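Predict the assembly for these two chains.
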Amino acid sequence: MELMTAVAVIMVKVVLITVILFIVPVPLTWLERKIAGHIQQRMGPMRVGWHGLLQPLADGLKLLTKEDNIPDQSDRVLFKIAPFVALVPPFMVFVAVPFGDSVSILGYETKPYLSDMNVGLLYILAVAGLEIYGVIFGGWASNSKYALLGSLRTCAQLISYEVPMGFAVIGVIMLSQSMNLSDIVDAQEPLWFIVYQPLGFFIFFIAGLAEAQRIPFDLAEAEGDLGAGYHTEYSGMRFSFFMISEYLVMLTISVLCVLLFFGGWHGVLIPLPAPIWFALKVGFFIYLFMWFRFTFPRYRYDQLMSIGWKVLVPLSILNILITGIFVY
Amino acid sequence: MYNENALNKISRDHRWIGVTFFLDLINGLSLTFKYMFSRSVTMQYPDREKWVPYPRHRGHHVLRRDENGENKCVACELCAKICPCNCITVVPYEDENGKRRPLVYDVDMARCLYCGLCEDSCPEEAIALGSVFEYSSYTSEELVVGRDSLLEMDGKTEQPGSVVKARYLPSAQSTVEAQESSGYDWWRFIHRKD
């Protein structure tokens, strides 16, 4: 009976998180277009629903009914599975992400996350790195110069920015003495880690921008020179899988920023329920991503590489050194 | 001149301070943030708003009436003579009062270049270019407008150009009906650098 309940609870959580993650990109696309519009003194979508709120549904419907075009000379098998390979890792990341303290529903004590693993952070970094396979497969299988160049760039970018990202996280691990994410959040109850780790946060955030392939590091899909990058040849549902995975990576980075540096679900001053605090902080980071996108130009490829290897990696090593001196 | 160069040199030497703290990036972010919360300049044209042109706007031709409600035009054909693209056809006749009036007054809107020379040349101030600008059509034959419909066209606007609330009527030949006589000045929300 115990086992049955535990399995049932886990099933419910899995379904809930999956559904939420599938739904979240829908309002995000609307939000992005609205922010883009207002920054450029336009209005963004206005015609479908109240202030265009139903626009993502219309877009989704359109994408569903589009032809699923597969290029003639492409590697058909790889081409078909690439969007799924890109889509699964962002979902897997959320296995280890805690959303709040333990809550009791109908007298049953449960925690709002799937797995409380003690190497949560390591798991997240490792699984998030898998997303690159979808990009490589998509770019290679399309048999198109734009897709190939885009996926090559993405590949180099993701690999080089994973290094400073991992190093930036080490400072947090040293402070909290744990890789368990809920332990890390609990360690921030007196003071958020952004106070101890401003440099670490800075490196993590910039590397996160690059990981999510957002401006100013969106060389993978530089519209001006590459069409749409690795998903140039995709259409219909498969294209929308790539888009969902991109928005989920952005969500992952925002969630990680909040968990590692901004005290997770712990609030300050105003006593709000934990999930609301968490959502507010994550929303702020998502807004930051979109705000950056419509403010900055794109870095050149060599600039991207030199920022990654010549600035962020030394800085992150310096950050580890400083943190080490202060911890001991 | 010398001072200016020295200043430039100082600012050049200390540029690294700004670069280190991303001053230019923060500058850009604050600018876009300001724009984000400023009013958008979009005119929601067919759905909710409509542009009422300036009095000088040269739109659809219109034939004016005098105080008795009679056509002012005396069919002198000066407009047809001066028209650079020969889009005006006038055929005169004598009416029951013995006055010279146009029997036919056709304007080919597709050929017209809206120069306004017909308006300038008219001795009776009968022909004018009005404020109507929604008269697109699928055939060029429909764009040849006759005397009677020219008499019913809206004339020039009194108010300066503004954006008014409007309603889109897809049934009534896809026209946009203005609901107010005056609205807000659209140019007010344009950001200009001084």
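The two ends of chain B are 25 Å apart (CA to CA). The beta strands of chain B are 49-52, 61-63, 88-94, 100-108, 127-129, 144-145, 162-169, 175-178.
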